[in-house]
Amino acid sequence: MPDYIITGILATLNYIDLKRDTNIRSPSLRPYPNLRQSRNLTFVYRTRADGCGRLWMVDTGLFEIPGAPRQVQAPAIVIYDLATNQQIMRYPLKSSDLINANTPAGLASITVDIVGDCRNAYAYVIDLATFGLIVYSLRENDSWRLSHNYFHPSPTAGNMRISGQYFQWGDGIFSITLTEPGCHGCRIAYFHPLVSIEEFSVSTCVLRNRTASQDSTFFSMFSKVGDRGENSQCTKHDYHAGSRVVFFAEIGRDAVSCWHTGSALTPSNIAILAQDRQRMSYPSDLHVTGDEVWVMVNTLPRFVYSRLDTNEYNFYIYRGNVRDLIAGTVCDSDFQRFLR
C-alpha cells in the first residue's frame, strides 16, 4: 500500500464536479482522474489547463510528510488529455534541472505557453526553493534551466504575518503570467518571487531560446517593472487579455488586487478588489479563465505554525467576473481613459 494512503492522503490531485455539486456548501473531493490512476501522482501543487484541452502539472515526486520527507520518484512534468482524462505524457526532469535535493520541494507552479499550434508548447516551471526557472519544450521534449538575480527573494520582504502567525520565509520566484503575443510572436512574461513586493518581466522569446543565457547581455534582457506597495507579497498572479489587467493573490494583505498594464506599476495604480483577514487568509492560487477570476485559499500558515480549527471553514474557492471586479477602479480601462 502506498505511503500516502497509510498517512490518510487518498489522492494528491482532486476535483469538484460543478454540475453535480452546485448547491453543496462543502462538496466532496473526487480523485482525478480516478482513485486508481491518481496514485501515480505523488505530490502536485498547482495545475493549469491550456487552450488545447490538456491539463499540465508538475509532480514533485516528493513525499512531504512533516519530519520525514522522502523522494519516491523523479520530479516530472505530467500532461492529461481532458477529453479522455488519460495521461498522455510524463517527462522526468533532468539532473541539470534539479541542482540539489531541495529543488523538488520548490517546483510549485507551471505556466503553459502555446506558440502557434498545440504541438509547439512550452512550460515554465518555477523553482522557489533554489531560485531557478525550468523551461520545457513539448516539440523537442527537452528542458533547460535558467538563473537570474530577479528569481531570488528580497531580504526586506521576508517578515510575514498571516493567519495570526508571525514568521519569516525565503521563497524565490513563485509565479509567471503571460500577455498576449506581440508582432513577433513573443509574449511578455511577468514574474515575481513570493518574498518580494516587486514585479519583473522578460520576453518569452528569451525564455524559449535555450542558448540565450550564453549571451553576455542575457541578464540585461530582464527588467524590473515596479512594485505593488508595502506588505503586498503575492503567491500567484494572472493576466486577462481583454482588459490588459493582471490580478494578484496577495498573502501579505489577505487580498486580491489588480493592476492595469497600460499604467506604471506603482502602489497608487494597485486596486484592492477583495480583502478579508479570516476568509482570504493565504490565497494560494489565482487563475483567470475566460472572463472569470478564480482564487483558492487554504490558511496554510495556520496549518504549519499552529493548528486548524476543524469547526471552521479553512479552505475556500472564490470566483468573480473580471469586469465586475475592476469596475470603477484604477484597473478599469474607462478610468484609465479618464486619467489621460
From TrEMBL:
InterPro entries: MRJP/yellow-related
Keyword Signal: yes
Domain of life: Eukaryota
Keyword list, A-Z: Signal
GO cellular component: extracellular region
Protein name (record): (apollo) hypothetical protein
Organism: Parnassius apollo
